[in-house]
Each structure stands twice: as structure tokens, then as C-alpha cells.
Amino acid sequence: MITVRGLTKRYGDTLAVDELTFDVRAGRVTGFLGPNGAGKSTTMRMILGLDHPSRGRALIAGRPYADLRRPLCSVGAMLDARAVHPARSGRTHLVAQARANGIPVRRVDEVLEKVGLTKAARRPAGTYSLGMSGRLGVAGALLGDPPVLVLDEPVNGLDPDGVRWIRRLVRDQAAEGRTVFLSSHLMSEMQLTADHLVVIGRGRLLSDTSMTEFLAAASSASARAVVPDPEERATLVRRLMTADGVSVETSASGELTVEGRTAAEIGDLAHHCRVRLHQLSDVRVSLEQAYMDLTARSVEYTTGGSSTDTTAAGAAPNEGGRQ
Known about the structure:
single chain, alpha/beta, 6-stranded mixed beta sheet, 11 helices, elongated, disordered C terminus
């Protein structure tokens, strides 16, 4: 378990992380989201003892990272997939980590096979693609078979098969009772992977809730239905429009988009009116839309009228390309 209490980080006059408090619990995948510059990487670095908080604390299994005797056996981390000497082979890089933490060298070959790098293990890491570097970083995180995993953007550079592999890997790790803390900008994949979400903006906590509750809070009652018969469609629309707070959009194909009513309510009304339906479903908000709505006020700069590729004020001056 990771415990964060009042975590704060200042760089001069810049407040990068502002009184963050949350828990990352074992047995589930916790997604860590926020706009560029929100303080995600700074928070992860403080959890891992790479940056010192100005105030507050971050603990792993009740202890600061610096107090862990064999760090790789307590927490596996990947913050920068390219943080490997380019002249070293992938295997040599992992062997050095293993020996420094008292891990048997045979474990190196086990994790190389697990991440699919056995054939490339003796190549210089500088020749690896971004996706291969990511796999090597994950191998390093798994090396000590730790109960806690902290992964920053592990899907970067991976092909679709690699993205699915990461999803299965982290979910399997959580199913085995491990604590998994995962950041990503790939919202569609995060929606499939995470059980719980911690969302920050400008260094402040915006949400700490389950994926189900996060999406439910962002959703409103709305549904889509297909009514093939024009007269029956007109009847259903008239009945729907008699209620306050309901709006209906129709298309030439016979599809109705109804705001203010659920699929179950529309189905009951159609049955009462003897209207035949070909399709009926609730409209669920995506994680991307719910996230964008929540963080809209936490984005300082937008491009082209969009808040998708942004940099928020409050980023640490030395974060560079970190997010």
C-alpha cells in the first residue's frame, strides 16, 4: 500500500504539488491522471524518494522509500523508460540492478522472458525502440517480485499487442494482491485497466474514487433507441416530450437520442405505447470525456481551442518533459 498525506512540493515560488492526500491500496489497479504539468511525475518521484517533499509524507507499506533495505524487492518502478546507459545491453542493465539488491541473476532471464525481450537481451539498450525500452523498464520493475508497482506511462511506444500485454500484466499483478499505481494519457486503455482513479490538476487532488463511481458521477440520464416505423417513432417522441427536462434528437435512420431518460424508462414507455424498438441502450460517458470535463479548469493553456494537448501552470521548472 502507498500512503500519501499532505504531500507538497515547491520549486521557489512555484507550487508543483499542493497538499495531496490519498491511498493506493493493494489488490487493485489505481490510475493516476492529470493534465501535462499537473504534478504527476513529481508526486511519483516523491513517493520513490527521488524528490524531497517541502511538506507532508509518502510511505510505502508504512515506511519512506529511503528506509527500505532492498528497494527493488519492496517496490518496482518505471519512471523513465530511457534511463539506461545506451552502451549496456538490456541484460547487463538488469544484472547490475539484481546484484545491487541481492536478487539471484537467474531472475533476470525470467523477467526478460516475461516482457518478451529474450532475443534482444544482449543488444545495446541504445538500439532499442521506445516500446522495447518500455518493456525493459517493466522488466526492471518486476525484477524483485515486489508487492508494489509504480509505472509512469508504461504504454508509451507500444504497439496494440503490447498495450494489451501491459493491461493483462498489471491486472494480473493486482489480482495477486499487489499494489499497482499507473499513470497514462491513453484514456481508452485506462478505462479498461484501472479499478480506481486519482486525478490531480495544478498539483491539487480533484478526484479519488472508483472508476465506476467516477463515470457515474459524470453521466446524466440519456439513451439511444431505434424505432423503424415513422408513425410509431412520432408517437414515442410526442410522449417523451410531454415530460419536463427531456430533449429528443431524431435521425433519418430512425434513431432517437434522448436526454433526460434512461433506456429502462424509454423501454417501459415504448411498451405502454406499443412501439416496436430495434435497438435500445443507455449512453455512457467515456473516461476521456469525464476526465476532460473534470480537469477543464485545471488547464492553463490550450491549443486550437482544445484542452487536449496542454501545459498547466504550476509545473515544476525542472520537470522538463515529465508530466
